[in-house]
């Protein structure tokens, strides 16, 4: 029996009798990661011609879309640094418009240490949670807020913003679009390209603050700015750079058509859309998955046990449940995994 849209066939969370026999958990896997990709040399980004550290601008001299590609919003996700530095060195080929490349958190990247590679994600706070005007226009100060305020003029002029990210735990690459039709179209147009992730996920934001792709420029009703994020694979794997470079190549070729028509000129394979239904937050410090689930796995049956959280067992609430980027070691209060459902239509216009 298959699930109809919106139906749930099993409770998400069930408290277990204290002494009952429950499934053994995976426990807390050690924080040991293989850094197969060395950090790039980004010295040419420190004082570029734009006058703004981390920002290179390429102008075709012909009118056309404003393209902005951001990477390293998280300082240790330097696969994006490789992708943008490779592009800068080659020199991008633009048929029209202007391209701005931004390495967002060079200060955090400066602190990268291969012996402890998870520590340089940010300096003071997550740069991908503070793009709401209430934070940007506040009197608060942090390394990341200052940087966001400096980058804002480049972001606010984007017709198309592609934000490149990578993942700590194993996960199939995917595109994420904010909940706006115009951005979902953009992500789907990129996802239709060769050797690119087919999944386009949309959600209602991230707990803890607004992401770059949710800046008011991309969220305002009646606006035209489109944004999407690419989770391109594990942080320190050469293959992640390749996925990012394929997405960049597709963007540069298709930008004009996507900007004007909301779709690409050619499609290798149709994108698969999915929408987040549940954010599973770890309520206990001992939260533990039953298996080391990989992101992008689809679990066929409702009621399949996923994780232990204190005395609770967490289950898939519906058939064909898609796991989005499980965090195999969430702290109490942290997002452990998101559940998503495949859908034929992201938004009804
Ligand atoms: Zn990231």
From TrEMBL:
The keyword Iron does not apply. Keywords: Hydrolase, Metal-binding, Zinc. Residues 1-16 have a biased composition (Basic residues). Residues 64-211 form the Succinylglutamate desuccinylase/Aspartoacylase catalytic domain. InterPro entries: AspA/AstE_fam, AstE_AspA_cat. Residues 1-21 are annotated as: Disordered. It comes from the Bacteria. Its cofactor is Zn(2+). This is Succinylglutamate desuccinylase/Aspartoacylase catalytic domain-containing protein.
């Amino acid at each position: 029996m298959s699930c109809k849209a919106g139906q749930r066939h099993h409770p998400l969370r069930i408290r277990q009798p204290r002494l009952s026999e429950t499934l053994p958990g995976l426990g807390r896997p050690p924080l040991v990661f293989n850094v197969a990709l060395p950090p790039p040399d980004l010295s040419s980004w420190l004082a570029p011609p734009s006058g703004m550290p981390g920002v290179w601008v390429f102008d075709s001299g012909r009118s056309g879309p404003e393209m902005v590609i951001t990477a390293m919003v998280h300082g240790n996700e330097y696969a994006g640094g490789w992708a943008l530095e490779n592009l800068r060195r080659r020199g991008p080929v633009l048929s029209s418009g202007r391209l701005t490349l931004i390495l967002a958190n060079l200060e955090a990247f400066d602190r990268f240490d291969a012996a402890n590679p998870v520590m340089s994600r940010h300096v003071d706070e997550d740069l991908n949670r503070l793009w709401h005007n209430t934070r940007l226009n506040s009197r608060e100060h942090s390394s990341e807020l200052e940087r966001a305020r400096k980058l804002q003029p480049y972001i606010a002029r984007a017709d198309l913003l592609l934000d490149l990210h990578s993942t700590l735990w194993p996960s199939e690459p995917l595109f994420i679009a904010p909940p706006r039709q115009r951005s979902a179209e953009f992500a789907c147009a990129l996802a239709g390209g060769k050797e690119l992730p087919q999944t386009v996920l949309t959600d209602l934001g991230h707990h803890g603050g607004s992401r770059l792709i949710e800046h008011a420029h991309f969220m305002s009703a009646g606006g035209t700015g489109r944004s999407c994020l690419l989770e391109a694979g594990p942080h320190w794997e050469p293959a992640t750079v390749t996925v990012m470079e394929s997405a960049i190549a597709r963007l540069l070729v298709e930008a004009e058509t996507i900007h004007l028509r909301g779709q690409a000129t050619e499609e290798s394979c149709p994108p698969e859309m999915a929408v987040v239904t549940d954010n599973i937050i770890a309520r206990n410090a001992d939260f533990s998955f039953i298996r080391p689930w990989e992101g992008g796995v689809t679990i066929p049956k409702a009621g399949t046990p996923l994780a232990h959280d204190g005395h609770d067992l967490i289950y898939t609430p519906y058939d064909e449940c898609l796991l989005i980027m499980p965090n195999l070691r969430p702290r109490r209060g942290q997002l452990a995994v998101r559940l998503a459902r495949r859908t034929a239509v992201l938004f009804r216009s």
